[in-house]
What does this fold into?
Amino acid sequence: MSKSLYPALAAALLSTSLLASQTLAEPIEPVRENDPKILNRYLGLLDQAYPCDWKQAYDTMGNYRLQFSKNIEVLEFACSISPYNEAHVYVRVDSHKPQDAELLSFKRPQNEDNDDPHVVFNGVWDIKTGDLTSFMKGRGLGDCGTYEVHRFTPEGYPHLLEFRAKPECDGNYVQPEKYPVVLTQPQ
It folds into this structure.
């Protein structure tokens, strides 16, 4: 190979490497939607999961669509239930069988406050990792509650990684990420 080809080859490799790393590092953003047909399609599942005025909530917030693989999407619907907690419900849809959409269940340790398996409170996505973090405030001050982290699989199912709880509302605020650990599981 001639020395004159080295710079061109190096530039091509660097360009390919940068392009690949940008593609890998680029997070996939959830897509916000506000189409009443979407709500109507899943309203029965939402009502089954949690008592809320889903139509009013949808008018304000819409829903988010997250693509986990070529055929698997998860739709996120939210509804405010108090000044400090917002209920989030997730519907998994396989584009090969859209009629078989299902409510997602979130596993938690037994005897913990949020024992509704279909609801996550104050859910926040980390779009780089696919983790869904939740903090349920025990009261408005935020000095008690639960903190949980779920990682979604490419098949669109949540897997509990971490659960923390501070059950005593003692007036001492602690970052939820520093609550006592109740359960951790491998990724």
Q: What stands out?
A: Residues 1-27 have pLDDT under 50 and may be disordered. DSSP finds three helices and eleven strands in the chain. Residues 5-25 form the longest helix (21 residues).
